[in-house]
């Protein structure tokens, strides 16, 4: 009897396979949803852009530090973080976390 058929016959094996399948589906959803969160206003030819990341909550230190790897943090307010100098190739990575609601151009003077 193969290892795969043994895993499918046991309850623990089916639970583990179900959890792995759910995790893979979640990761796929994050990857597919990220481009839809990016504003069309960010289309262009420049290598770097200034962005405003909208969150459904007040950002904490963890969130600011997580985005700091993509650009210079220009500030944070009630529900957003402003980043300057973000590479266009990193926009999908910035938008990928489930807690990011949208990514748009930075709000100047706000």
Give the topology, please.
Blueprint: H1 3-9, H2 11-37, E1 48-54, H3 61-68, E2 72-76, E3 80-87, H4 91-95, E4 102-105
Antiparallel strand pairs: 1-3, 1-4, 2-3
Helix pairs in contact: 1-2
Describe the structure.
Helices cover 43% and strands 22% of the residues. Strands 2-3-1-4 form a 4-stranded antiparallel sheet. The protein folds into 2 domains: 3-34; 38-105. The protein has helices at residues 3-9, 11-37, 61-68, 91-95, and strands spanning 48-54, 72-76, 80-87, 102-105. Helix 1 packs across helix 2. The radius of gyration is 19 Å and the shape is elongated. It has 110 residues and is α+β, with helices and mostly antiparallel strands. The longest helix is centred in the N-terminal third of the chain and has 27 residues, at 11-37.
Overview in brief:
This protein is α+β, with helices and mostly antiparallel strands. The chain contains 4 helices and 4 strands, in the order ααβαββαβ.
């Amino acid at each position: 009897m193969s290892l795969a058929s043994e895993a499918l016959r046991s309850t623990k094996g089916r639970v583990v396979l179900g959890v792995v399948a759910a995790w893979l589906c979640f990761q796929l959803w994050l990857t597919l949803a990220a481009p839809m969160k990016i504003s069309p206003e960010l289309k262009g030819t420049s290598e770097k852009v200034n962005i405003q990341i909208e969150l459904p909550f007040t950002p904490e230190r963890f969130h600011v530090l997580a985005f700091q790897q993509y650009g210079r943090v220009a500030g944070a307010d009630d529900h957003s973080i402003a980043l300057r100098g973000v590479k266009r190739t990193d926009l999908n990575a910035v938008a990928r976390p489930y807690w990011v609601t949208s990514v748009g151009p930075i709000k100047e003077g706000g």
